[in-house]
Structure formats: C-alpha cells, structure tokens
C-alpha cells in the first residue's frame, strides 16, 4: 500500500516487481499444497470424518480448484484496495449476487454438493478478467504470465497422479501403495516441469525451505505466544 501511495516511475516499477515476485512465490507454495489435498483426499476425509463421508470427494476437489483460483486472483484485488479504488467492486458484487442465486438454483438440483462447489468456483473466476484490466489501468500491472506455468503444472500433477494410480491399481498393487507411488511420480513430473519452464524455481525452493525452517517456525511461535 505504501508503494502505491507514493506514485512515481521508481515506485511504480518497484511495485510491479514486488507484485510479480509475490504472485510467483504464492503459487509456488499453493500448487503443491493443493495437489496434496487433492491426491490424498480419501485418507484425509476418512481420518477426519470417517469413510461415510467419502462421497464428499467430488465437492472437495472442486473446492481445491476454487482455492487455487483464489490464490491466483486475490492479489489483483489487493492492488485495487491499495489504490483505494474499491468502489469499483460494488457493481461487480451485485452482478455476482444475481448470478449466484441463479447458478445455485440450477447446479444444486443437477449435481448436489458438487454443483454448489462448482458455483463457488464460478464466482471466483467471474469476472476475473475485469480485475486484471483494472490493475493494468491503475498501476500498470497486468495478468502475471507465470501463472500459466503453475496452471499447467497443476494439470500435470493431477493427470500423472490419477493416471498412475489407476494403472498401478489395475496391476493389482495394494491401494495405499498405489496412492503413495502415484503421488511421488506426480511430484517428480511437476519438479521436472518447473525446472524446465521456470528460471526462478530454484530461488522459490530456497524461499520455501526458509519459511519452514524449524528455528524460524519456533521463533514465530514464541512471538505469537508472547
């Protein structure tokens, strides 16, 4: 907010650099976390709620997609807030309310809980392109193209995981072993994809390691407790 409050060529350039770096690091962290929730949905649901709740896998997978979309889109909202242009959201909110009521009426009747989750995803995506246009007009910050690397990476993670798991299960492998092997294979394919497509992947990995260092987490806990 401070960068955007003091407008000028140098400040605007630094704000764009900081925004691009933040979005990149955010997606670097969020994509594998979302994939873990997607791939391990069965044991997670069974552990937390019992096997009777396994039909909730469908809505959960859609909610994972909605959370990923939010991680990619919300930073553009923050730019609009920092520039104190939040009044622009008022007509969008009213339009989304009307769409929400219609979509929920139709989707829940057709697909139940999965349909309701799908409406959540719809509201995250609609109308995201307007937010990108606003930030480009107000701050020279357009859609961050590195986002597509992570979108493709998540698709690769899901595709390799689901395909490998089905193939291993067809060979008669013990289901938990098939789940674990497919998970590892998918992560390996994703790591290779990032290594080939993203020059800053190594820097992001070092950043992620720094975040989860035990000493850093312990310091955060001590400060929060204090």
Describe the overall structure.
The structure is a single chain. The protein is mainly α. It has ten helices and no strands. Helix 4 (57-82) packs antiparallel against helix 5, helix 4 packs parallel to helix 6 (128-139) and helix 7 (147-170) packs antiparallel against helix 8. The longest helix is centred in the middle third of the chain and has 37 residues, at 89-125.
Mean pLDDT: 93
Uncertain residue segments: none
Give the overall shape, derived from the CA principal axes: globular
Secondary-structure element string? HHHHHHHHHH
Structural class: mainly alpha
Radius of gyration: 20 Å
- The tally of strands reads 0
Helix content: over 70%
Biggest sheet features: none
DSSP summary: helix tally: 10
Bin the strand percentage.
Answer: under 5%
Distance between the termini: 28 Å
